[in-house]
Amino acid sequence: MSDHEYTPKSKAGKWFNDRLPLLTLANHLTDYPTPKNLNYWWTFGGILTFCLITQIVTGLTLAMHYIAHADMAFESVEHIMRDVNYGWLIRYIHANGASMFFLAVYIHIFRSLFYGSYKSPREIIWIIGIIIYLLMMAAAFMGYVLPWGQMSFWGATVITNLFSAIPLVGEGIVTWLWGGYSVDNPTLTRFFTLHYLIPFLILGLVVLHIWALHVPGNNNPVGIDVKKPSKDTVPFHPYIVIKDGFALLMFMIVFAFFVFYAPNILGHADNYIEANPLVTPAHIVPEWYLLPFYAILRSVPDKLLGVVAMLSAILILAVLPWLDTSKIRSAVFRPLYKQFYWILVVDVLILGYMGAMPAEGLYLLIARVATAYYFLHFLVILPVLGLKERTIPLPLSITEPVLGGSPNMAMAKKKESKLE
Amino acid sequence: MSDKKPERRDFLFTASYAVGAVGVAAVVWPLVDQMNPDASVKALASTEVDISSLKPGNTITVLWRGKPVFIRRRTQEEIVEARSVKMEDLIHPEKDEDRAKNPEWLVMLGVCTHLGCVPLNDKGDYDGWFCPCHGSHYDTSGRIRKGPAPWNMEVPKYEFVNANTIKIG
Predict the structure, then answer these.
(1) What ipTM score was computed for the predicted complex, to two decimals?
(2) What share of chain A is helix, strand, coil (3-state, %, to 5)?
(3) Largest CB tally within 10 Å, which of A80, A327, B17, B169?
(4) pTM of the model
């Protein structure tokens, strides 16, 4: 928290703050000391907050026109698109907003992986983040069901059927989730309720996520602790506010491109066909942001083990702070980890591509190899690497490499000697 | 705790927690159970289907309890193929005689036992059904032969009301 006690200047402010210290909180947030070497990969927290608020605001307005009933849902979405004033705009922002949200969250997660932001003392921030990510997937999945198109219906069928893999009670759980013997109206109404609820749960967790962040403060590209007191930090306002704001503007350009020029490119044409319980679309795939996990599910030939593998692929992230045995946070000082990091990025991209392709022949083989590598990375490579790797010496402070012009101290030294 | 003799107060605590737990469970259960199929869903128990127009080699799909049901009038070759399979070749061993009492008629839920998609007719490596979602192959008796599905397609309860009508459920 803030290093100094805060007292409001005005008498009224002091009177209020003594009773509810909101001004102290506001002061903490403005003065919050932030490492001065944060790069643009650190702007995605702010971008994600923007995404969440966008989804909540557009979602609330859509809910004023949407009808959660199996006979009317599809038509009410078309009604929003054609009749409601700016309905097309609000719905396209909401639908593409989900994709933008995941784009930003993946960058945010991979930022953490590169710079070791999940390591001590930031494990709780990381675990809250993983819970938020899980809730995001649940919200996105249920939101995709609401238009009641073919992909909605069959996506809901396939995903809820994952629970039938649980021995003994699986079928009972699926019937309970459906509220019937198939995905139908009771399923739609409960999905709508939960889709409405989850963003507010996420909002609460975001508060905890930021609270937990403000205890140790931000990690940074060099990955060493800031020295206190020192000139390693700058106040959050105006320095980080301006930087986050600029990055947000760039992000909004990409966002607006999808909304205005390619609003359906990330969706599936099949979802403009109303749900039909008698016909499954020839090729069902989830939204792009779930494809890597879908590829893992399909690459295991056994039903139960496939579901277990898919869930493990996500939950393994929660124990990452303990799987990675290296004390050095930033990949900048871990030459081998840096290479494995990029292999993992490519591996996940390959899994995503395979998830979109039919599960047969060469595609299936590649998906299997990529699945095996994914688990190998977390379960074998990371624990061993932390013990074996020869890391580059860390600089003494984050100011040192900044002044030297390079995060690598040896290079910084060289530069200094040249200057002399 | 261990060397201390239990007192009246400990008893009171334990009893209070126990009563509290029962109370919470009693309130939570209705909130959980409301999600199970309701009376109106359960009421849609059976469907009668007219099969008089079905020719050998054709399949019709009807909706029963929100799920598709395949009714196939099998050809002689299909019956022979289904009945000549050795039990040890099956993932989920079931005799065709048990699945289709009247060999000409195969009635089963058109739901892949993997993740619930509707398999396609006359497709796949075993001349029966093929599920496009994750590649499960079923034979002419609707038994799983290849792919991730764990079981054969389910045969629901049904009966012939007369020569031209099947009652499912």
Answers:
(1) 0.82
(2) 70, 0, 30
(3) A80
(4) 0.90
Instruction: Please give the torsion angle defined by the CA atoms of residues A115, A119, A122 and A123, in that order, rounded to the nearest 10 degrees.
Output: 130
- Average pLDDT by consecutive 10-residue portion of chain B (169 residues)? 79 96 96 93 83 89 90 92 89 91 92 91 89 88 90 92 88
Q: Which B-chain residues 42-101 have CB contacts (< 8 A) with chain A?
A: 61, 63, 65-68
Q: Which of A159, A132, A163, A121 is nearest to A317 (CA)?
A: A132
- Measure the CA–CA gap between B59 and A140, rounded to whole angstroms: 37
Position A2 scores a pLDDT of 45
Tens-digit pLDDT profile for residues B127-137: 899 988 888 89
- Residue B134 is a catalytic residue: yes
CA distance A228 to A248: 30
B162 at interface of A, judged by CB pairs closer than 8 A: no
Q: How close B3 comes to chain A (CA, Å)? A: 38
Low-confidence ranges of chain A (pLDDT < 70): 1-4, 402-420
| Tokens, residue B23 | 């109370």
Q: What pLDDT, on a 0 to 100 scale, did the predictor assign at position A113?
A: 98
CB-nearest partner of A303 from B68, B110, B114: B114
